[in-house]
Amino acid sequence: MFDYEKTVTLVGTVKLFQFTNPHCWIELSVPGEKGAEDWSVEMGAPLQLYQGGWKPGTLKPGDEVKVVVRPTRDGTQKAGLFVSATRADGTVLGKPQ
After folding, report:
1. Average pLDDT, whole number, for the chain?
2. CA distance 49 to 78
3. Residue 57 and residue 19: Cα distance in Å, rounded?
4. 55-83 pLDDT, tens per residue?
5. Where are the domains of the chain?
6. What dihedral do alpha carbons 73, 78, 84, 86 form, nearest 10°?
């Protein structure tokens, strides 16, 4: 589903951070040429995120973040697989891989 050869960097506002099984998700509003675009970012399971330093309250609606994702292969969906995230102040979220 995801293109492991490419990355896309998204800078936007968190709409929702779902810390749930089987996968966690970040719903992100990203400014675009035609207005805001909503992106869905798939992450690992909650246990994997805990091990990487994440907690249920790590992201809150309204937080400004830069998220790097592996986009979908066909590009028709505004979605991607999580690679990394950085707060607007430069703080890296989670443990670097």
Report:
1. 93
2. 22
3. 9
4. 999 999 999 999 999 999 998 889 999 99
5. 1-40+62-70
6. 150
